[in-house]
Amino acid sequence: MDKDSEVASKYISDDNAEIELKQGSQSNTSSPEETSPTPPPAASPTSPVPDGGLNAWLQVLGGWVVLAASWGLVNTFGAYQTYYQTVMLTSESASTISWIGSLQACLLLLGGLVSGPLFDAGYFTPTMIGGLLLICFGMFMTSLCSTYWQVLLAQGVCVGIGMGLTFLPATAIQSQYFAKRRAFAMGVAGTGSPVGGIIFPIIFSHLLPKIGFGWTTRVIAFIIL
């Protein structure tokens, strides 16, 4: 009887040892997974947009000046048309003279087909310089004109092409310097258009009787330059 109990207790101890061995092996195999270090969180990419600063607000100022020189001049054409109808181009009808301003505005908008790809390709500065020089050159040539076709080519075509080269880049550059305040910055730059449309007609009407058409137009060109 004692011998049988000893054998039974031996089997029980062996079974307990096997169970403990299996549990130990399972804990050993699962421990590397539990103790493996978690990977560090991916660093969030930093935004390259400065969203302010001196350089960013200088872009807004530059855009303001360009919009005053482009849409501001388009809004000034009413003063020019009055002079053309009453003094310089009296033989032409009002609808014929209005084609000068219409062509100017049309080329301003169509110029984005050229200035947009140039801006995307990184030619912002050459495009702006070329456009502003064309505006000034066209205004200087307008001051020397005496016939309808001369005015159409100088003020309508040359100035219009220059406006088309400058308008879109001057507007799009704001988005590269502002993120949260982008709408505000573009709105501030956009105020150059109505301000130019107010100032240039006043200059034209005040200087025209004093220094004549030629020098009045040259003064406006010098202001743009």
UniProtKB/TrEMBL annotation:
| Stated family | Belongs to the major facilitator superfamily. Monocarboxylate porter (TC 2.A.1.13) family.
Q: Which Pfam families match?
A: MFS_1
Question: Which PANTHER family does the annotation name?
Answer: MFS-TYPE TRANSPORTER DBAD-RELATED (PTHR11360:SF234), MONOCARBOXYLATE TRANSPORTER (PTHR11360)
- What name goes with this protein? Major facilitator superfamily domain-containing protein
The record gives the membrane topology as:
Multi-pass membrane protein
**Where do the TM regions start and end?**
54-74, 94-114, 121-141, 147-171, 183-204
According to the UniProt entry, its GO molecular function terms are: transmembrane transporter activity
Where does this protein reside within or beyond the cell?
Membrane
Which stretches of sequence are listed as region Disordered?
1-48
- Give UniProt keywords alphabetically: Membrane, Transmembrane, Transmembrane helix
> What cellular-component terms does GO give this entry?
membrane
List, alphabetically, the InterPro entries matched: MFS (IPR011701), MFS_dom (IPR020846), MFS_trans_sf (IPR036259), Proton-linked_MCT (IPR050327)
Q: Which residue range or ranges hold the Major facilitator superfamily (MFS) profile domain? A: 56-225
**Family annotation (PROSITE patterns):** MFS
